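Re: that chain you flagged

S.,

Sorry for the slow reply, it's been a week of failed gels. I finally had a moment to sit down with the sequence you sent. For the record, here it is as I used it:
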Amino acid sequence: MTKVVRLGYQTKVGLWLLSLLAISSYSFAQVNISGKPGLMNIPTARILADGTFLIGYHYNPSHYDPRSDNPNVKNTGNVGEGQSNSIFYATLALLPRLEININVFRVNGYIPVNERGIGDRQFDIKYAVLTERERRPAVAVIVSAPFGIDNSLVTYAAAATKNFTLTDQLTTEVTIGFGSPYYFDRSDNRGNDFDIFSNYKLHNKNERSNPYLSGPFGGARFTYKKTVGGMVEWDSRHLNLGAYATLFNHWTIQAGVINFDQVTFGTSYATSLFHLPKRLKRKGA
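Prediction finished late last night. Pasting the structure tokens below so you have them in one place:
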């Protein structure tokens, strides 16, 4: 008897994006799961052009839910059950070396009434300690603000990134880094969300079954004609493969496979706050 495999809606969307990448049109800002310049899950030391603003969405599959078995999540009734996640984000290159990022992490599917809300809000800062030169990589540090109560993608990491030209049309960007397994948050402050100066505690990400960026990570991005490319990464736990493309110079789509197991995908739109659209330029002339 032939076994019929039924694909979920999210998986179908991810496969559609993967096929679309083959027919697409400068990578304005290809970003990772939380909206930072990166690959799929890992960040890089690549810095956005000054004044760049981007917004986007990323889908994270259920087997790799960073909230699974999180001892700091209380009263959810389903902590041990992995669920897929939706991450919404906005990133701004505030200064030539400084980026700020806000992301909202939401669990897809059923959520107990007493746990429903906007989602886990997280505020991150990225600073380029070194910019890339001919004989040295760019180096950046990424730090999450400790004010959160349960930030699933909390990041304390350092990364080094170097670009290489392989041919006239093919380049590669190589990144290595390390993510601290330890972080501070206010997970004991539930019910008193507005008191941001108390109940800080040190936690270990490795207490979770799917800790985000806990240990060494690295990867490479291959770009063809500054438009489409492939990605391979080790996110400190899994080996992931993906691809991306930029349409109309601003809209980026990407998709990949986490641990050769489940599909992940995302999309973002980036623009420069220093350059007016052509229509506005004509009106102002």
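What I noticed first: Residues 54 and 270 are 4 Å apart (CA to CA).

Talk soon,
D.
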